[in-house]
Input
Amino acid sequence: MTKKININGQAQTTEFLFLQDLHHHCFPSADLSILNGYATTENLPLQTGDDIYFIEKNKLPSRASLEAMMCSRHTPHVHEKVKQGKVAIAGLGGLGSHAAIFLARTGVGSLHLVDFDTVDVSNLNRQAYRINDLGKQKTAALAAQIAEINPFIHVHTDFVKVTSENAASLFADDCIICEAFDNPAAKAMLINTILTQCPKKYIVSASGMAGYGNSNDIQTRKITDHFYLCGDGTQGAIPGRGLMAPRVAICSAHEANLIVKLLVDILPDAAR
Output
């Protein structure tokens, strides 16, 4: 019996009764079969209306196929919420550059990158930049990396210093702000400005990630309904306990992980 199905985003008809039979006969070069949002190797029966993707792992697929693959990794209802997210990363150093990449790999649909600095050689010990990024604006260098990870994510950049005067307008379109400054006064300024001027927005901040060891001391704490703090809260950078890549990255992962939780479990759909 002929069935009307969608294959790789296109409406088609098929006489095949089972998924893997269709795969092997019509798409033999594909490595992955996705049926209605879930990857499978089972030869499942086909039904009219099925949504199917066959994907080659070593080639960049179409946007729709890449979305289908992300859905199969995260489960559809989770990925749909993540890709609707609008997240700003304020400060693109050790915390912000890694958090942005984690969120890009997770498929957050819109990332707003904000920083006023350029990449220099001192950044290479803990930030997500490379030698060929030296001298570039951090916003541009990080946007280029994200485009190589997922070219279908919307990335907006602002090469500007955040102040109490411009913060509210700068982040007007973002539902969550990831605070990733390395200056305590700048951290306090952004947190206070967002909580007072934009009380419906969420801000995820970090404090205390210097040194090495004690990975489990880095925690995520809820300070208020819209303000969360990641880190150990104590370990600032001093001689003998500088900022080092592993512990900084652990803290940035805490920030990114919490942001994903906010997008999936906390934010109402209208706020994304």
User: Anything to note?
Assistant: Helices lie at 19-26, 63-74, 76-83, 94-106, 138-149, 167-170, 184-197, 245-266.
